[in-house]
Every structure is written in structure tokens, then in C-alpha cells.
Design brief:
Blueprint lengths: L30 H5 L15 E7 L5 E7 L1 H4 L4 E5 L21 E2 L9 E2 L5 E7 L2 H8 L3 E6 L6 H4 L23 H7 L2 E9 L11 E6 L5 E5 L4 H12 L6 E4 L16 H12 L3 E4 L14 E9 L5 E13 L2 E2 L17 E10 L12 H19 L3 H7 L17 H12 L11 E3 L2 E13 L5 E8 L4 E4 L9 H13 L6 E4 L16 H26 L13 E4 L2 E4 L2 E7 H7 L4 E8 L3 H4 L5 E13 L4 E12 L6 H20 L5 E2 L4 E2 L17 E6 L23 H13 L5 E2 L3 H4 L1
Parallel strand pairs: 1-12, 8-31, 10-11, 14-16, 20-21, 27-30
Antiparallel strand pairs: 1-6, 2-5, 2-7, 3-6, 4-15, 8-13, 9-10, 9-12, 13-14, 17-18, 18-26, 19-20, 19-25, 22-23, 23-24, 26-27, 28-29
The chain binds dioxothiomolybdenum(VI) ion.
Length: about 750
């Protein structure tokens, strides 16, 4: 049974934190370790005789490596080896071994496999040295000769090659078949709108750089500290690529400095560090540079076309939504972009389409709310446009077409409190004071606009295991190979366990971030709380029953004649609910029964047969105010109210932080973020935080988050749905709509930079 793994430094709440219950606002149990630097990240683990690897990035988008000259690099004092496709250790040759648990269909990129170049910035060599400085200097001296081939990196220029994805990833739902006669209805409608939308490439920019520290022990075992959203996914990948058995590799990720989807797949620093460790029989660390963070997955460039039609009273009569997105030549990366348009509003006539264009880029990757971030944006901007065509309030239009059952499949919702989001969000914002006409609010030189949008995301549940150990001193350790990418997993799981067993929070530790712990899914898709949280609840309920039985057997037990249904765990004791004075402390139960440890294991399998009968989603209503300087085109988002329906909230504080983070990113996506490709070179050019603009403190003003009451026991036994992604969805559309309300200018491409607003 899993006890505390010392090296993980599993955090615990401060002494005196005391009793907590689900839904309270609780500070992060890992907060102190993070702000004092006690929390270690992948690049920070020390090792004896550590070697440092620096990656040499390729400079052409397509072709073959003809020559590599390493002699100058090897002559630098301290340089140990230059690893290339010509001298690397043996790796597996079949594509299947490179498929991590989230790989899309196709053939994954294989770092240093052969001389083929499939995208610009691809790793072509790893320089390994006794110091980071020597490796970095020598990396500049490696000379690579290429044979170039023609490349294509522009989505707009290549959209004629669009095709339906043939190679899909597990879990992807292609757009459903057309419903009704959407095209005919649109053609003959009096009130209709049409728009083309463009979204540029965005790159993940978590604070922490991608890094792997591979610590090799004398017996050849590899302990790898990796920046990943799943230690078990990275362990699986390393085992498969290198043909190493499961017990030869342990991957750890107790702290992750943000990832947003970029850590769903193992990145290339991981196999490169392992190659060096195997070849040189040493411990090795590889850290990518900020520029190299732009040389793997990204949110794909996407083109969309939306057509909506309505009756004069606002009833939607046609929804047509088509998207064309970019993928790589080697994999069909797919997103659910258009399906939301058939799920959000009641409409009898819907046609949806989704196509890909393969380009000479790295495969795109999931980035926070993949698909919805673009698809719901386009739909919600189109809905706003339709509201003006109807001379109708945009919120009234949404309420007019409110879906009481899922319009796509006719299923009931597991829970859907979107109406409460609209009502409470609008009241908090003061939406009823909004003038219908655009361009009518002004203060000083600034035009003011109010916009709103709806958000929607999946409420998913995977399967997970958890184990728990209660010690005689009344401290509890619950373990699962989960991940905390900054989202608050440590704290949420600790709260669930403390609440279940009535223990003070500082007595509970939740241990995650090690591939040898009980199996947990990848932290992604906003599913971790519903999944791992339910496993934690389950294992604690098993402990409850064990404790109850032991308590009943104690000599002169006050609970001897009590039923389990009539007791509760509270204040470190097991007590009769109706008579709180009749109680036995958990410590007494342990001592009285002669137990040093009480253990339980639990496998949480979702009730899929039941879940399949329901549409399971989170919802949001976003209201925002912008102030636009019409001469400079500068936009300030001065006020955002985000009303969220995401099931039961486990930790009011970290859940709110998740939504604030989503709103900040939504502002960033609407106004700032775009990676520009120079198509002559086939390369992303603004590959640094100086030129890849993100929202900074000065861009962020008032953000107000409210959670409406929702409790969903179909999605999870703890009632939670998940808040990781819903906070982003709809924000960029609300901003776009507010800019229209301020200026009368409809901008259909993101980011909405000043030149488009002027
Ligand atoms: Mo998220 S894009 O599911 O890490």
C-alpha cells in the first residue's frame, strides 16, 4: 500500500487549518511550498554527476538532413557527446510505439529518428555536456546541411485541399449528420446573417519551460522528473519508445508550472534526455528554451463560416456552421469545433461541417477548451449579429432559443442551470440598462460597449484508482497518480478526503505526481475533479465503513447498536448524527482495535450506461464592458461578469481562480495572442514573450465570477463537473460583441488588434 514518497514533498495544509467541508474557500495546501521555493519543478531536481543537454533546432520546414558536422561542438571543453539520428541509441521503429495516450490518428513525430524534416524548428541534435553553458555554446557550433523540399504552411492559400479527417483520435466526435433542411431554410429566410471567421495560431506559454531530468541509478533504473500532465502517460511513452519494461522507469511530476494542454503529450525533450541517459549511462537534464516552446503543438489556425436565420420573433430557423482547420502532414489533429452549434440552441434545421488541411507544421495540440474556443466564439458572434438584424436584445435572443433538452441528440441534460447563469450574470452586470443601439455610450474620448456570450464545455468523467492509509495518530494519506498543473488538485482532493472522514485538513495529505501510484487519467478536459475526486470519495467511504465496524466492536462501544446510516464523521470522531455527544474519536478506534494502519483501495468506474442517457455539459454566461479609443483602436476590457454552472464546487477559492484565469486568457485571445508564420520560411517568427503578446496586469481590470447552484450526481458521485476550461469559452465572443456595441464595427478575426478596430 502506498505510503508517502519522500521525494515528492507532498504538501499539507498549515497547522490549525482545521475543519473544512466541500464548497468552502480554502487556500492551496501547496501554496506555502510554491511561494517559498520548496516546491520543485522538473528542471530543479538535483542529481550527482548530472549532464546537461541542449537541443539544436532545425531551420527548414521540409526536406532532409544531408550532413551534420559535430567536430567543432565536440571540441568545446566539457562537451561529452552530440547525439543525432546517426548515432542515437536504438529506438523502436514502428509508429505505434510513439503513440502516447492522447495521440491523434496518424504517425507521431519521432525525434532524431531519421534525417527527414517535417517542420521548422524540429530537433536535429542534442549536445550533451558537463555544464549547461558548455552545451549551450557548443549547440551553436553544430553545422547541419539540408536538402530542402517545397513546403506549404498557409491555411488560407491551401484551403482548396481541405479534406474530412480520416485518422481520428479517441474521443473525437465528428459533426453529426445534417438535421432538417438548413440550406433551404437559410436561402428563403428574410432575416439572416452570414460571416467568415479567422483565428490565428496560438501557442501555449506556461511559465514553466518544458524540461526533463533523468536520474539514472547504478542498476540502470530511470527516475524521470518531467513536465507533463500525466506521469503515467510519459512513463508509457518512454517504455514503448525505448523498449524498457515498466519497472525500469518511474516518471514524476509533483509540481507543474502550467501546461494548458501542452503537457497532454510527451514533448521531445523527454525522449532526447532518455536517449542521452541510456547512451552515456549518466543522469541528464534537458530544458527547452522559450523559443523552442514554439516548436511543438499549438492551437490550430482555423477558418469558419457561420450562417444563421430566424423568424421575426427571434426563433432560429437555420444554423449552418463549417470549419476548416490546420493539421500536420503526419497526424490528423482534430477538434470538436462546430458540434457546439447544434447543442447550444433549439433549432430544427442544422448543418455542420469540419475539414482539415495538412500543412508543414508540427501537429497542433489541445489548448484550453480546444475546439470550443474557436467554434463557440464564431457561433456567439454570429448570434450577436443576428440580434441586431432582429433589433432584439442579444440575451433575449438566447433565451428565446433556450434548449430544454439537448437539440443534437434529444437527450435530457444531466443538469443545466444556464438560465440561472443568464439571470444572475445579467443582474450582477446591470445588463437591463444596456441601450440596444451601438455607438451610443461614450465617456471622454472612449466609446463604451456592452457585450455578452454563452459558453459551453463538456462534463467528462474517466476512470481512476485511489488508495488510502489512515494511521493510528489520525493522519490520512490518499494517493492517486493524478496531476496538479496549478489547478488546485492537491487542495480539492484533500478537501474531499477531509470532509469525508471529518478530519482537520492538516491531518490529510493527497499524494500525486508519480507513475507508480494508483492509475489516474491525464489531467485534461476539465475532468480531473469529477474523476479523481470521485475515486477519493470512494476510497474514503470504504475507510468510513471499516472504521464503523471497528468502532462497533470496541469494548462497551457507544455505537454498538447504531446503524451506519445514523452516524457521521466530524471533528476527528465518528458520532451519532442525532446525538453528537455519543462519539468515538478515530484515534480511539485505531488504538482500541489495535490497528497501526487502516488501508483501503478503490476503483472508480464511471456509470457509463447511465451517463450515456444524458447530455453532460458545463455552461456559462459572460457579460463584459469594453472601452474603445476610436482614434487608436485600443480596447480595454474594463468589466467582466462570468456566471458559471459547473456542478458542485469543491473549493470556492481555487475554482474562482480557474475562472479568473480563463477570463484573463479570453481577453488575451480576443485582443493579443497570435503566432505569425513567415510562409517563405515556413517558420513561426514571434517565438518569444516579447513579440507573442499576452495580456499583462495593465490589460486586466474588474473580473467578477459567480457560480450558480448546481449539483450533478450523474456526472460524478460528488456532484462536481469541472471548471478548468469553461471559464475561457465565450469570453472572446463577448468582447468582440462589446466592441461592436461600442463602435458599430464587426471584427470577425482574432486577435482583434487596434488596426482592425480603427
Ligand atoms: Mo486541457 S487543453 O484538456 O489540458
Amino acid at each position: 500500500m502506498t505510503d508517502l514518497i519522500e521525494e515528492l514533498r507532498t504538501p499539507s495544509a498549515d497547522q490549525g487549518t482545521g475543519a473544512v467541508s466541500i464548497g468552502m474557500a480554502v487556500s492551496r495546501v501547496d501554496g506555502r511550498d510554491k511561494v517559498t521555493g520548496q516546491a520543485r519543478y522538473a528542471a530543479e531536481y538535483p542529481a550527482d554527476d548530472l549532464l546537461y543537454g541542449v537541443v539544436v533546432s532545425g531551420t527548414i520546414p521540409k526536406g532532409r538532413i544531408q550532413s551534420i558536422r559535430s567536430d567543432e561542438a565536440l571540441a568545446v571543453p566539457g562537451v561529452v557527446e552530440v547525439i543525432t539520428h546517426l548515432n542515437r541509441p536504438r529506438i523502436r521503429s514502428f509508429d505505434i510505439f510513439y503513440k502516447d495516450m492522447t495521440a491523434p490518428g496518424g504517425a507521431p513525430f519521432r525525434p532524431l529518428y531519421d534525417g527527414q524534416i517535417v517542420y521548422s524548428g524540429q530537433p536535429v541534435a542534442l549536445v550533451v555536456a558537463e555544464s549547461f553553458e558548455a552545451a549551450r555554446y557548443a549547440a551553436r557550433l553544430v553545422q547541419v546541411g539540408y536538402a530542402c523540399e517545397p513546403h506549404a504552411t498557409s491555411l488560407t492559400e491551401n484551403r482548396g485541399r481541405a479534406y474530412k479527417p480520416s485518422r481520428m483520435k479517441a474521443g473525437f466526435t465528428p459533426p453529426p449528420s445534417p438535421k432538417g433542411h438548413a440550406d433551404e431554410m437559410w436561402d428563403k429566410a428574410d432575416i439572416k446573417i452570414e460571416g467568415e471567421y479567422y483565428s490565428g495560431v496560438e501557442h501555449h506559454n506556461p511559465m514553466e519551460l518544458f524540461a526533463s531530468t533523468v536520474i539514472r541509478s547504478a542498476d540502470g533504473h530511470l527516475t524521470i522528473y518531467d513536465k507533463t500532465q500525466s506521469s503515467q502517460n510519459s512513463r508509457w511513452y518512454v517504455s514503448h519508445v525505448f523498449g524498457l519494461s515498466k519497472d525500469k522507469v518511474t516518471v514524476r511530476n509533483p509540481y507543474v508550472g502550467g501546461a494548458f494542454g501542452s503537457g497532454l503529450r510527451p514533448q521531445y525533450q523527454l525522449p532526447l534526455a532518455v536517449m542521452a541517459a541510456l547512451q552515456l549511462e549518466r543522469s541528464v537534464r534537458v530544458v527547452l528554451t522559450r523559443q523552442q516552446m514554439f516548436t511543438f503543438g499549438h492551437r490550430p489556425e482555423t477558418l469558419q463560416r457561420v450562417r444563421l436565420a430566424a423568424d421575426p420573433d427571434g426563433t432560429l430557423t437555420s444554423i449552418i456552421h463549417e470549419a476548416v482547420a490546420e493539421t500536420s502532414r503526419i497526424e490528423d489533429y482534430v477538434e470538436v469545433v462546430v458540434n457546439w452549434s447544434g447543442e447550444l440552441y433549439q433549432c430544427e434545421h442544422v448543418r455542420l461541417g469540419y475539414q482539415l488541411v495538412d500543412l508543414d507544421h508540427a501537429s497542433p495540440m489541445d489548448m484550453r477548451a480546444p475546439g470550443a474556443a474557436h467554434g463557440v466564439h464564431a457561433l456567439e458572434v454570429a448570434m450577436d449579429e443576428l440580434s441586431y438584424a432582429l433589433k432584439m436584445d442579444p440575451l433575449a435572443l438566447r433565451l428565446k432559443n433556450y434548449a430544454e433538452i439537448d437539440p443534437s441528440r434529444g437527450l435530457p441534460y444531466s443538469t443545466k442551470e444556464l438560465r440561472a447563469c443568464y439571470e444572475q450574470g445579467a443582474a450582477r452586470f446591470g445588463w437591463d440598462r444596456r441601450p440596444l443601439e451601438p455607438g451610443t455610450m461614450r465617456e471622454g474620448r472612449e466609446l463604451i460597449g456592452w457585450g455578452m456570450a454563452t459558453g459551453m464545455w463538456d462534463a467528462m468523467q474517466m476512470f481512476a484508482r485511489a488508495s488510502a492509509v489512515l494511521r493510528a495518530d489520525g493522519t490520512l494519506v490518499v494517493s492517486s497518480a493524478a496531476t496538479d498543473i496549478g489547478t488546485g488538485t492537491y487542495t480539492a482532493m484533500s478537501i474531499i478526503a477531509a470532509d469525508a472522514l471529518g478530519l482537520p485538513l492538516e491531518n490529510v495529505r493527497f499524494q500525486l505526481g508519480d507513475s507508480t501510484l494508483p492509475v489516474a487519467p491525464i489531467e485534461g478536459g476539465s475532468s480531473h475533479v469529477a474523476t479523481v475526486g470521485s475515486a477519493v470519495q470512494g476510497v474514503c467511504e470504504k475507510l468510513q465503513k471499516k472504521l464503523f465496524k471497528l468502532a462497533q466492536k470496541l469494548p462497551d462501544s457507544p455505537l454498538a447498536k447504531t446503524r451506519f446510516a445514523d452516524v457521521e464523521f466530524c471533528g476527528g470522531s465518528l458520532r451519532v448524527s442525532s446525538q453528537p455527544g455519543v462519539a468515538v474519536s478515530l484515534v480511539e478506534i485505531m488504538h482500541g482495535s489495535g490497528n497501526q494502519r487502516l488501508e483501503a483501495k478503490y476503483l472508480m468506474l464511471p456509470n457509463m450506461l447511465k451517463q450515456m442517457k444524458y447530455q453532460r455539459s458545463t455552461h456559462s454566461a459572460v457579460f463584459c464592458e469594453v472601452r474603445v479609443d476610436p482614434e487608436f483602436g485600443a480596447v480595454r476590457v474594463t468589466r467582466v461578469v462570468s456566471a458559471i454552472a459547473a456542478g458542485r464546487i469543491i473549493n470556492a477559492k481555487t475554482a474562482r481562480s480557474q475562472i479568473i484565469g480563463g477570463v484573463v486568457w479570453g481577453i488575451s485571445q480576443a485582443l493579443h495572442e497570435e503566432t505569425h508564420c513567415d510562409h517563405r520560411l515556413g517558420r513561426f517568427m514571434n517565438h518569444n514573450l516579447g513579440e507573442y503578446h499576452v495580456s499583462v496586469n495593465a490589460d486586466i481590470h474588474d473580473i467578477d465570477v459567480l457560480f450558480v447552484q448546481e449539483d450533478d450526481r450523474i456526472v460524478s458521485r460528488i456532484g462536481a463537473k469541472g471548471v478548468g476550461e469553461i471559464g475561457l469559452v465565450g469570453v472572446s465572443a463577448a468582447i468582440c460583441n462589446a466592441i461592436y456595441h461600442a463602435t458599430g464595427r464587426r471584427v470577425r478575426s482574432t486577435p482583434i488588434t487596434p488596426d482592425k478596430v480603427m
